[in-house]
Design a protein that fits this description.
Helix content: 55-70%
Low-confidence stretches: 1-16
Structural class: mainly alpha
Largest sheet: none
Number of domains: 2
Number of helices: 2
Number of strands: 0
Mean pLDDT: 75
Order of helices and strands: HH
Shape: rod-shaped
Length: 109
């Protein structure tokens, strides 16, 4: 949905995150949206703050995903270790049973 704006204003895509004050700033001259002390445009500063907040949220989500991946890896390793231990115990029992059979057949051992 593209609206026609007078030629002295640039078209600006409006999103649901804009407040009334930021919408008013869109139609102001650049000199009216610049901070008197630092010279940074309020629009740019606002967008920068939004990006910073989004970055922090994404970093937190990434950290959660990394922790989840580590937990799943540890669980897989524990499961594999359990399987290996079960296989070793099974082989040990069969070896022990064979030793008992041989000992029963040959009393000199």
């Amino acid at each position: 949905m593209h609206k026609h704006f007078p030629t002295k204003y640039k078209p600006y895509s409006l999103s649901h995150t804009h407040t009334l004050s930021s919408l008013c700033c869109i139609y102001m001259e650049r000199t009216e949206t610049v901070c008197c002390y630092c010279g940074v445009s309020y629009l740019i500063f606002h967008e920068f703050q939004q990006l910073r907040t989004e970055l922090a949220q994404l970093e937190a989500e990434l950290q959660d995903l990394r922790e989840t991946a580590q937990k799943e890896k540890a669980q897989r390793e524990a499961l594999e270790l359990g399987r290996l231990e079960k296989a070793v115990c099974s082989k040990a029992r069969s070896t022990s049973a064979k030793c008992l059979q041989v000992a029963a057949q040959d009393p000199q051992i």
